[in-house]
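As a warm-up, study this chain.
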Amino acid sequence: MAQVRYKRILLKLSGEALMGSQEFGIDPKVIDRIADEVACAHNLGVQVAVVVGGGNIFRGVQGSAWGMDKAAADYVGMLATVMNCLMLQEVLRNKGVNTRVQTAIEMPQVAEPFIRLRAIRHLEKNRVVIFGGGTGNPHFTTDTAAALRAAEIKADVLLMAKNGTDGVYDDDPNKNPKAKKIPEISFEQFIRQGLKVMDPAAVALCQENHIPVVVFDFANIGSIEKIVLGETIGTLVGAERHS
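Now compare it with the structure written out below.
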């Protein structure tokens, strides 16, 4: 078995990553590729947990723009994440990967409630665990949910998958062609510079719990395998790379 750097990872996927080139919903080819990447890491002996967003179906900010109460809109968004989790679970199971979904909002007919020790036990039994429902509370992003779950399961690293962005830049690369990629940065520098790649609350949680974050472009096939095997991919936030 290959020597892996990270033995337990938490992968954060945005709901938008599931859309592919569609305007909404799930692209079957995209979710199949995501499952392949997760399965590849799993087959290396890595314990894999996943947090999935729901932006491909509904976003809380979208509901607020329609005049919905912010908390109500956030709850709808949380339910959207569960739909994505169940879809990803079925694709993984069809690939022979033993998978469990745990949700922050209890819905026992479709998934387990989130129980920290049970989630850790699933990982120890070589099952992929997918966390849905965000934190279970409104006003928190799925970035924050990912950082929280990473801390609770004592993940070695949080992998922050982005769409079309291969790391952290000193400016928006979509607006500034001269923006420079930052290969690694401390938590303090990230917060001080006000970089927008991930929620500041999530960064603070990872800093407090000493969990490094790798920001990478999920469109680059094989990225997860390369990261867990120690290759330099994306931007490392919060820790020095090993030589």
